[in-house]
Amino acid sequence: MGKNAVPAPVTELIESLSQLPGIGPKTASRLAFYLLRGKSELALRLAETLQGLVEKTRFCSVCYNVTEEDPCPICTDEVRDQSIICVVEDPMDVLAIERTDQYVGVYHVLQGSLSPLEGIFAEDLRIAELEARVRQHEIHEIILATNPTSEGDYTAAYLLQRLKPLNIRVTRLGRGLPMGGDLEYADAITLTRALEGRQEL
After folding, report:
1. How do 169-172 and 141-144 pair as beta strands?
2. Which residue blocks in 103-196 are alpha helix, DSSP H?
3. pTM summary value
4. Of 158, 96, 84, 175, nearest to 124 (Cα)?
5. Whose CA, among 1, 35, 53, 111, lies 20 to 30 Å from 127?
6. What does the pLDDT look like over 103-113, one tens digit per residue?
């Protein structure tokens, strides 16, 4: 295929799509050409949605969950128990736990998990901010709800070490969750049992 066989805008779209997790060059090409085949309305709507995503969303300055308002509605909800913080890796984990309709506390989103092999260290996550929250507010319990993966377990162990000097109750989700899975894929019943069966560390 000649160098100029595909117009530059299409090539740029394919390159951008292929940077998304789980989307390789072939899938990116299929998506790009799908949008080109008479789907101009969808393409324009997608462009507007992405622009709105960038312009209207941010991370909460308290819990670092994705939000339109700062602080987010969960952090400002007076009905929720502000003394219990559930620590998760990603905003998708917040959605998964909220689906259970059982958790009444607030959250702290780390924005990832520790993975030295991938170059992700403590300073790359919102760990210092978690410590600051615990020091500044009357917190009764920290629930470590990192994923049941090697990175999630390593992150939980590291957090426990950092939080122990603060003399606070630290628990971990019960092991109703399958090892190697992600919270976002767990069903509500499994997550509810994991919350109820959390163990003190």
Report:
1. parallel
2. 127-136, 150-163, 188-196
3. 0.77
4. 158
5. 53
6. 999 999 999 99
